[in-house]
Design a protein that fits this description.
174 residues; mainly alpha; 6 helices; 78% helix
């Protein structure tokens, strides 16, 4: 049966994706920290609103805030990683830093879901597969974003959201 109403969750993600695409065309903010906090809060909210089991409002708010903070921390890790991976040739350093951030964020977020949403903690295998799918989504976002300049940071978030939620859906239904 699963822990989430996945049709509702993916409908929310789709609507949020369209909203982000439209909103970023208006250039409301150039602050990446605020943008990534919003990205994390939006995905976490989509999870909270699609939970099958009722949770306390307090626990849901803490989860959304923690997800927003995690997203900002992941951004900062990625920015720091570009300096560490900067010695690699061409854009390999950027891909390395982004990949490390995407995987780290997915692992911690998966654990956070298990702890704060009272969804049974995922084992290492599902977490690893979901993290790998987030890595591939981040690489796809960077590649397509570098070729289609109308795509911004929101594109990375949207692909990461769908990769994470797709993996969650896959393992939750088994």
């Amino acid at each position: 049966m699963g822990h989430f109403f996945y049709p509702w969750h993916f409908l929310l993600l789709f609507c949020l994706s369209i909203s982000l695409a439209v909103l970023t065309r208006m250039h409301p903010s150039n602050d990446l920290n605020a943008s990534f906090a919003l990205f994390g809060a939006l995905h976490a909210s989509a999870l909270v609103f699609s939970l099958r089991a009722r949770q306390s409002v307090w626990r849901n708010c803490v989860f959304v805030a923690a997800a927003a903070g995690l997203c900002v921390i992941t951004l900062r890790i990625g920015m720091f990683g570009t300096h560490l991976f900067g010695a690699l040739p061409a854009s390999l350093g950027l891909y390395g830093a982004l990949g490390f951030s995407a995987v780290t964020g997915a692992l911690i977020y998966g654990v956070l879901i298990g702890r704060l949403l009272v969804v049974p903690a995922m084992t290492l295998r599902p977490l690893a597969v979901i993290s790998l799918s987030c890595l591939l989504a981040a690489f796809a976002a960077l590649f397509t974003g570098s070729h289609f300049h109308f795509l911004g940071p929101w594109w990375l978030a949207v692909l990461w959201w769908h990769a994470f939620s797709g993996g969650l859906w896959y393992f939750d239904r088994r």
